[in-house]
Amino acid sequence: MPETTGFATRQVRTGYQPGTPQNTAIPPIYQSVAYDFGSFEQARDIFSLRRKGNLYSRTGNPTQAVFEQRLADLDGGVAALATGSGQSAVAVALLTLAKSGQHIVAARQLYGGTVDLLTDTFADFGIEVTLVDQDDLDAWRAAARPETRAFFAETIGNPVASVLDVRAVADIAHQAGVPLIVDNTIATPYLLRPKDFGADITVYSATKFIGGHGSSLGGVIVDLGTFDFGAEPQRWTQFTEPYPRIGDLVLWEEFGRERSAYLVYAKTKIVHDLGPALSPFNSFQLLQGLETLDLRLERQVGSALAIAHFLDGHPAVAKVNYPGLPDNRWHDAAQRYLPRGAGSVFSFDLAVDDSKVAKFIDSLQLFAIVANIGDARSLVVHPATTTHSHLGDTQLRDAGFGYRTVRLSIGLENLEDLVDDLRASLDAITEE
Ligand SMILES: Cc1ncc(COP(=O)(O)O)c(C=O)c1O
Question: Which cofactor does it need (predicted)?
Answer without folding.
Answer: pyridoxal 5'-phosphate
